[in-house]
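By way of example, we now present a protein record of this kind:
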Amino acid sequence: FPSVPRSSGSHKDGKHWVVGRTLEEATERARTLAGDAKFTLEQDEDVLDTWFSSGLWPFSIMGWPEKKTPDLEKFYPSSLLETGWDIIFFWVARMVLLGVRLTDQMPFKEVYCHAMIRDAHGRKMSKSLGNVIDPIDVIQGLDLESLHLKLYEGNLDDKEIARAKAGQKKDFPKGIPQCGTDALRFALCAYSGGGRDINLEILRVEGYRKFCNKIFNATKFAMLKLDESFVPEPHAKPTGKESLAERWILHKLNIASEEINKQLAERNFIV
C-alpha cells in the first residue's frame, strides 16, 4: 500500500493497493499510482494463501506450533479425511507435505473421496446458472419466489440473475419440495456407488422421503401391537427360550450385521 502523507487513500477502499512479484515491481506500480507524491510502501501483514493456510489446518487447530499440547497428543494425527477428489492436489497434498515437514507425521491415515454433487443435468453447480442446491432448502423446502430472492444475496449482475432465474424456473417450477434430513442422507448414500459424480435430482430425493415415511409408518404399526407393559430386553443376548421363527430372525440379523460391518470397514456403501 503506497502511504502518501495527507492523502485521502484508505487501506479499506481497495483502490490503492498494488501487487508485485518483487519489491521493485511493487514500487514501480505504486509510483504510477501515487504520481509525483512521495510515498512509503507498506506491505500487508495479513496475507496468507488460502490453500497454504488450509494445509496447516490439521495441526494448527490443535495448538501448533507448540510441540506438545493436550489436543495434539490426543487427536493428531487423525484417522480419516473425507473430501472431494477435485481438491486432492490443492488441499490434501498440501496437508500431507506440511504435516510431514512441520510435525514429522502424516496428518491422517486414510483419505476417502466422495463423489462430486452436480445438478440433474450433470453440470457443475454455479450461482450464475441458478443451479446451486442448498441442502437446507432440500430439507425444509423452498418455493420458487424465495429461490429467486436468494440470488440477490450474492454479487451477480442483472444479466446473470436473469439467466439464473430462468434456470431455476426450468429445474424447479414449483420450488424445492420439503424432503427432510433422512431422505437427503438416504439419497446421497444411494447415489454414492454410481461413480465420481452425483447428478442430484430433487424428485428422486422426494421419492426417498416417501420411502422413509413408509418405514416410519410400518414401525408405528408394529408398536401398536405392543401394550403399555412391554419392556425391551436390557441386552441382545438370547434367553434360550426363543421360538424357531425367532431364532431364524436372529440368525438372519447376525449375517446382515457381519456383512454390513465388513462393507463399512471397506468403505463400500452401496452393496
